[in-house]
Amino acid sequence: MKLYSTKNKAFVVNLERAIMEGLPPDNGLYMSKIKPLPLTFWEKFEENSFQENSFQIAKHLFEGSISDEKLAEITYDAINFPAPNYLLNDEIATLELFHGPSLAFKDFGARFMSRIMQYYNGDNNQELIILVATSGDTGGAVAFGFHHVPGFSVVILYPKGKVSELQEKQLTTLGGNVHALEINGTFDDCQALVKEAFLDKDLNTQLRLSSANSINIARLIPQSFYYFESYRQISKNIRKTKDITYVVPSGNFGNITAGLMAKKLGLPIYHFIAATNVNKVVPDYLSTGEYEAKPAVRTLSNAMDVGNPSNFPRILDLFESNSKECSTWNNVKNEITGIAVDDTQTENALKEVYQNYNYIIDPHAAVGYYALKKYMESHANTYGIILETAHSSKFKPDVERILRRTINVPERLAILANKEKVSIEMEVNYEHFKNQLLSKFLIKK
Ligand SMILES: *Cc1c(COP(=O)(O)O)cnc(C)c1O
After folding, report:
1. Centroid of ligand 1 to alpha carbon of 168 (angstroms)
2. Mutate which of 102, 105, 217 to test ligand 1's pocket (most atoms within 8 Å of Cβ)?
3. What is the structure's pLDDT at 444?
4. Residues with Cβ within 6 A of ligand 1?
5. How many CB atoms lie within 10 A of CB 64?
6. Is the pTM of this model over 0.85?
7. What is the pLDDT of residue 445?
């Protein structure tokens, strides 16, 4: 597989470098031209398992970069939980992406990436230390993704008192090769510490550091797998008669980029809805043609509080125009409708789904539900599938307040609640952070 930088298409690297490096040196994003899947894929599509179809897609994209046998092993191991459609009525479904270990869709990306990185890391005898700053879901998925993966340690930095109780448990109770640093500051402070570590030449000569950034192409690719799995579950009659539309609650726009890639691979998706909260840089771009990054505003759907979506350049790259008649903006608008939803509308949507269907969605999917209903007012032939990006219990206090009832926490999350939190508390001080890393990992070298 060949990948180029979105900032310079002449800069081309192989899959190993794109994955191990994460970002190109010019600060663009790694991207690849996507060719449609061969007919032989579709001949077996309906009868194949989720895992087998995922392997076939990875194989097509990777073009022999990893042997079939190894890639099958990695894919089957990473994609080891289901992605079921849940039908709300005969024209609306959710795609439940929360059946993985951290109960969010990010598990697909984190598990696949960790195993590919393990493969490329080989039996290098110095461990690779993954540094990750998190405000919630990313840290949990990365911690589970790399937990017990040989050759790797994970150091998670999170802002003290600013992540939910259950999210904190996911970061601090795994133990083993997962280490949590509780920073007396904000998420931005955590991110700044991680950035400084990567730029510190002295530190990097002593330790092998890597990031598990959400812009890594190895996190994006497996997110296209579940669009195929969801489509496979739609009845033939609906496929024939309705406009199949995916509604993607979006923050950094990785999930929707993966959907657009699935369509380029040949999955017959009719349209996409990018559902955002009031952080609506992309919906504004879609209506005006101007892209203007803004500071993020805090909302109920906080995993989507993003003012400058990091995957946006990939969307422009996918729909880059070479003609005068139809601009890139026109191309993107034809594929995606952007709809922004405020917190009051989000709460009302969450209540409506509960009252009408006795089904509890999380605040992010509630944004999606509201956007879909709005869209359907003028698009009557729509069959809408909302990506349910996390389990409602991850946002327990808000969901319980909105629905005025207690909600259940799945067993695998509830178990963590009784485990003891282990973390190292730290001020926002780079020297302390660096010393912590050296004292923890240098001895083991
Ligand atoms: C990360 C996340 C999102 C946003 O996904 P992007 O790929 O960044 O657009 C939405 N919902 C939940 C629950 C998330 O954790």
Report:
1. 18
2. 105
3. 52
4. 104, 106, 137, 249-255, 303-304, 364, 389-390
5. 10
6. yes
7. 47
SS3 (DSSP) at 313: helix
**Is there a contact between 197 and 30 (Cβ–Cβ < 8 Å)?**
no
Tell me the best of 304, 311, 346, 392 to mutate to test the pocket of ligand 1, counting ligand atoms within 8 Å of each CB and taking the most: 304
Integer Cα distance of 348 and 355 in angstroms: 10
Angstrom distance (rounded) from CA 76 to CA 51: 5
- Per the structure block, which two tokens stand in for 271? 């349209």
What is the Cα–Cα distance from 348 to 125, expressed in whole angstroms?
Answer: 54
Instruction: Please tell me the distance between residue 442's alpha carbon and the centre of ligand 1 in angstroms.
Output: 35
Question: Tell me, what's the pLDDT at 443?
Answer: 63
What values do phi and psi take at 402, rounded to 5? -70, -40
What are the structural domains, with CATH classification, of the chain? 83-101+222-406 (3.40.50.1100)
Could you report the per-residue pLDDT of 173-232, keeping only the tens digit for each?
999 999 999 999 988 899 889 989 988 999 999 999 988 877 899 999 999 999 999 999
Nearest to 286 by CA among 297, 276, 296: 276
pLDDT < 70 positions in the chain: 443-445
